[in-house]
């Protein structure tokens, strides 16, 4: 086997464990720029809206909601196509195409001459965000060695949270310029970096094997695995791949349905437990509740920081403690956070003094707990639990569900809050979080430390 490996790599030195680690981390980090764009483009709009709404002759609330939520519609559509495209033309080309769409969309938004063109630009950016949100974990998951796959795939979630934090800071720093065009336009930098970075990346080894391109897969794996691991992995991927012919329509077959359901339920719970009401609306909420603009923005930036820090901790723990444990612990924390926020509204809709501090603390507990569990674990699990043959398509289904649920919550949140009050709405989120906890406890499998091929045999058969 070793001779075969050396011959096929044409005398290139075999990578040692140090450089293997470096190669996988660098490759994952470059790809995770897609996550950074996801975070930045979804987060930036909150601050940009403050200036945008005075432009184009003044925007109505509905027009502002359109600017925010059309990205989510685009993302659902992007996710719908990206999986099949990634199965057909490969993961790498799909990410390259996604980076190009990012560049086009971002430039269109920054230089838009009219409001309708801005809306088109937001849809275009959404297409790329949706595609990136699923192809990036897919690509990283297939390139990663099993023992560190959790941490590597979750670099994507870390990049999302960093993107959100950077967008808050950009909004904050660019306040003085009032330039929403610059706020939107800055995203062109990571978009170009993603494109150039991907030019130097190789195709996913599992996808190559699935296409019968073993020689190329071997070359790629030579940089990502110890020499003795390469042939067994290729053989294993072949074996599970040849066990049966799965097609996209088999997603509904009785054997696969439970796994598809788990992915969709994780997606829906990730959104209906309220994360983006906090990520997109926290400054508005705190401001409306009586906090000054500056304190509201500051609390928001700190919340973004908590999100990043807890994601880093999650990355360190996912491959040790396991996905399921972190998910369950994190979900308990989310419920506690939501109930603390609920409690802060006990004295009325206006939060003053201790009530404001309680609300902010509750938000931090909630966001930190999301970041250690449901945030990274959703994206990680959907990159792990599906058979290779339908992985792209099945991830698409879960990702569409995620963006659709995000859209529904985001467009209805302010209206629902006006109708049932702060206490009512956060109590609702807290209760939904308890339902999510019960579901996760009953249905979510542990995937730590297993190869994707082992998981395929265990979960599907
Ligand atoms: C979710 C996003 C959310 C982000 C917050 C992601 O896992 O899919 O909807 O905005 O986490 O960190």
What does this structure look like?
The chain is mostly helical. The model is unreliable at 1-12 (pLDDT under 50). The longest helix is centred in the last third of the chain and has 53 residues, at 391-443. The radius of gyration is 22 Å and the shape is globular. The protein is built from 22 helices and no strands. The protein has helices spanning 2-8, 17-31, 33-43, 45-52, 61-89, 91-110, 115-143, 149-153, 155-173, 180-185, 188-199, 205-210, 214-224, 227-242, 257-272, 275-288, 293-317, 323-344, 354-372, 374-382, 391-443, 452-460. It starts with a helix and ends with a helix. Helices cover 78% and strands 0% of the residues. Beta-D-glucopyranose binds at residues 42, 157, 160-161, 164, 270, 275-276, 279, 307, 375, 379, 402, 406.
Task: Give a brief rundown of this model.
This protein is an all-alpha fold. It has helices at residues 2-8, 17-31, 33-43, 45-52, 61-89, 91-110, 115-143, 149-153, 155-173, 180-185, 188-199, 205-210, 214-224, 227-242, 257-272, 275-288, 293-317, 323-344, 354-372, 374-382, 391-443, 452-460.
């Amino acid at each position: 086997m070793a001779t075969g490996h050396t011959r096929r790599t044409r005398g290139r030195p075999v990578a040692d464990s140090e450089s293997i680690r470096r190669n996988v981390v660098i490759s994952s980090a470059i790809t995770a720029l897609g996550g950074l764009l996801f975070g930045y483009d979804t987060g930036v709009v909150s601050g940009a809206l403050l200036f945008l709404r005075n432009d184009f002759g003044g925007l109505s609330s509905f027009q502002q909601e359109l600017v925010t939520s059309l990205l989510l519609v685009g993302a659902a559509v992007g996710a719908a196509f990206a999986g099949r495209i990634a199965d057909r033309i490969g993961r790498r080309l799909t990410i390259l195409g996604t980076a190009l769409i990012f560049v086009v969309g971002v430039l269109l938004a920054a230089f838009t001459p009219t409001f309708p063109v801005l809306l088109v630009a937001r849809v275009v950016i959404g297409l790329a965000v949706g595609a990136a949100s699923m192809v990036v974990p897919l690509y990283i998951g297939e390139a990663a060695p099993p023992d560190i796959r959790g941490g590597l795939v979750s670099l994507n979630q870390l990049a999302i949270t960093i993107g959100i934090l950077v967008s808050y800071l950009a909004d904050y720093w660019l306040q003085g310029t009032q330039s929403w065009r610059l706020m939107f336009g800055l995203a062109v930098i990571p978009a170009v970096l993603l494109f150039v970075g991907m030019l130097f990346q190789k195709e996913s080894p599992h996808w190559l094997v699935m296409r019968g391109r073993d020689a190329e897969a071997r070359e790629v794996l030579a940089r990502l695995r110890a020499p003795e691991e390469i042939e067994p992995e290729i053989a294993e991927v072949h074996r599970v791949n040849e066990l049966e012919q799965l097609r996209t329509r088999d997603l509904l077959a009785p054997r696969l349905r439970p796994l598809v359901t788990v992915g969709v339920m994780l997606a829906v719970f990730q959104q209906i437990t309220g994360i983006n009401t906090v990520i997109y609306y926290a400054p508005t909420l705190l401001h409306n509740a009586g906090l000054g603009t500056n304190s509201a923005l500051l609390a928001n930036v700190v919340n973004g920081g908590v999100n990043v820090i807890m994601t880093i901790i999650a990355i360190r723990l996912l491959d040790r403690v396991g996905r399921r444990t972190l998910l369950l612990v994190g979900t308990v924390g989310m419920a506690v956070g939501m109930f603390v926020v609920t409690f802060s509204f006990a004295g009325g809709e206006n939060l003053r003094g201790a009530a404001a501090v309680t609300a902010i603390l509750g938000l931090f507990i909630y966001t930190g707990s999301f970041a250690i569990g449901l945030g990274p674990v959703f994206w990680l699990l959907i990159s792990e639990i599906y058979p290779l043959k339908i992985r792209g398509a099945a991830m698409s289904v879960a990702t569409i569900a995620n963006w659709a649920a995000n859209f529904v919550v985001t467009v209805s949140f302010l209206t629902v809050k006006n109708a049932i009050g702060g206490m009512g709405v956060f109590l609702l989120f807290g209760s939904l979080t308890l339902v999510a906890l019960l579901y996760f406890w009953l249905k979510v499998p542990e995937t730590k430390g297993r190869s994707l091929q082992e998981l395929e045999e265990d979960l599907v058969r």
